[in-house]
Design goal:
This protein is mostly helical. Helix content is 66%, strand content 4%. The termini are far apart.
Length: 455
């Protein structure tokens, strides 16, 4: 049995109406990327490029192929490696790659929702809130979120393939490969196996029969999940309670975590919005349970990290909220179908979708003003720093560059990574000091939006 809603009576939408809907989505995507056209490199970019800068293609491939490799998120680092060796420190190709992946993920969400809801109208309505969101700001302006972008793409492709194709050995091998790529993109993707199982539970009319039928399908993915958990999760669990990856496995931590994340969804309206959408999903409870369960399950890998919570962590779990939006739109469509003729319904549907897409995008544009202003300020500071380092020339071998002032958010590790990447030198050291040592040759300060060499 396939977990889908009934097909709409509307089989065809006039070409002009379809064009209007597609144009509204594309316009919002292009508008989003235009809003963040100021994007530059972020702190994570300097650290990640420093990691891969001296790696060979064979070394990068080995990190990807070895299931026990301790390399940090090798699929994402491979993207860094390819872009750095092709374009150096030109930020535009990095952001074009990230924005292309976001556009791809938007399309994948539409595909999966259309298959589940059996309605292009509902699928577009669910996809629209994903296109432009203030809590996705880091997705648009920081290439350091390439890990989310890639993991989301592989997870959505894996979910679409699981629902669409009849299970056979080649299909299961291919899906397991997609799963491996997903978890090697970001650890949150470990939850994909649970999402697959949730789908089968929600789709089944006979739970016992379903278990006998599908459990053999999960042998390979569960083995991969166990190997990954053994190799990675233990290493990422911080012992020090101040560590970013310290895990606090308490129910109270989970409740606090979900409270924080829902507040990042639509501010104080986040939880009420989800509650209303969940209430609307009762018309098709199994599908509603699947979408809510997807959001809950995909948050589990990060929900117990009290020191490591970010608004853009919604990027992967948001598909569940998109599904709830789509279900609400499906109910609206059903009611419109009874009130309007088929000829008028197509035009009304298109007008509603265009209005909803542009209205939601406009709201998020307004909500993101302060965030964009701050990110533009940081991008300008980092670009000035990079240009300033380029202009100081090449220091002597094993030189130590002392800084009494650095750009915002720079730590000693980020500073040294940035200096080494910009100067293309591994022997250079950089330190942040309250006062320059008397014998220091390189005394640098980031002041007035630039790097100055002090006497």
């Amino acid at each position: 049995m396939v977990l889908v809603a009934r097909r709409s009576a509307l089989r065809r939408t006039p070409g002009l109406a379809k064009f209007a809907v597609v144009f509204a989505i594309l316009l919002t995507l292009l508008f989003t990327f235009r809003l963040w056209s100021f994007s530059y490199f972020w702190t994570d970019d300097f650290n990640n490029i420093a990691l891969i800068r001296s790696q060979s293609a064979l070394q990068m491939a080995s990190h990807l192929a070895d299931p026990f490799a301790g390399t940090f998120r090798p699929v994402g680092l491979l993207a860094y490696w390819a872009l750095f060796h092709a374009f150096g420190l030109n930020p535009l190709p990095y952001h074009l790659a990230g924005w292309t992946l976001h556009a791809l993920n938007t399309f994948l969400i539409f595909l999966v929702l259309r298959r589940l809801l059996r309605s292009s109208f509902a699928a577009v309505a669910g996809t629209a809130p994903f296109v432009l969101r203030v809590n996705f700001a880091d997705i648009y302006w920081s290439f350091g979120t390439i890990f989310e972008l890639l993991a989301c793409a592989f997870m959505l492709a894996g979910l679409h393939g699981w629902i669409k194709f009849r299970k056979s050995v080649p299909v299961l091998v291919a899906l397991t490969g997609v799963y491996v790529l997903a978890i090697k993109s970001k650890e949150m993707a470990i939850s994909l196996v649970a999402v697959w199982f949730l789908y089968e539970c929600c789709a089944a009319s006979d739970l016992r029969g379903m278990l006998r039928r599908v459990l053999p399908w999960f042998v390979a993915p569960v083995l991969v999940m166990a190997l990954f958990g053994y190799a990675k999760v233990g290493a990422m669990r911080g012992v020090d309670p101040r560590d970013p990856y310290f895990m606090d496995l308490r129910f109270a931590t989970m409740i606090q975590g979900f409270g924080q994340y829902f507040s990042w969804l639509y501010g104080t309206w986040g939880l009420p919005v989800v509650a209303l959408l969940a209430a609307a999903a009762f018309a098709r409870p199994r599908l509603g349970v699947f979408f809510l369960g997807y959001t809950f399950i995909t948050f589990l890998p990060v929900i117990f990290l009290p020191n490591h919570r970010w608004p853009f962590f919604w990027y992967i779990p948001f598909f569940g909220i998109a599904g709830l939006f789509g279900m609400a739109a499906k109910e609206i469509q059903v009611r419109l179908r009874h009130a309007l003729s088929i000829k008028n319904l197509a035009s009304v549907n298109a007008a509603l979708l265009v209005g909803w897409t542009l209205a939601h995008g406009g709201m998020e544009f307004y909500r993101s003003r302060a965030t964009r202003a701050e990110e533009a300020r940081l991008a300008g500071a980092f670009e000035s720093f990079v240009e300033g380092i380029r202009q100081i020339g090449q220091p002597e071998a094993e030189a130590v560059l002392y800084f009494d002032r650095v750009p915002p958010n720079f730590t000693p590790q980020i500073l040294e990574s940035a200096v080494r990447v910009v100067l293309d030198r591994n022997d250079i050291h950089a330190e942040i000091v309250p006062a320059f040592p008397a014998a220091a040759r390189w005394k640098l300060s980031f002041v007035d939006g630039g790097v100055q060499r002090m006497q």
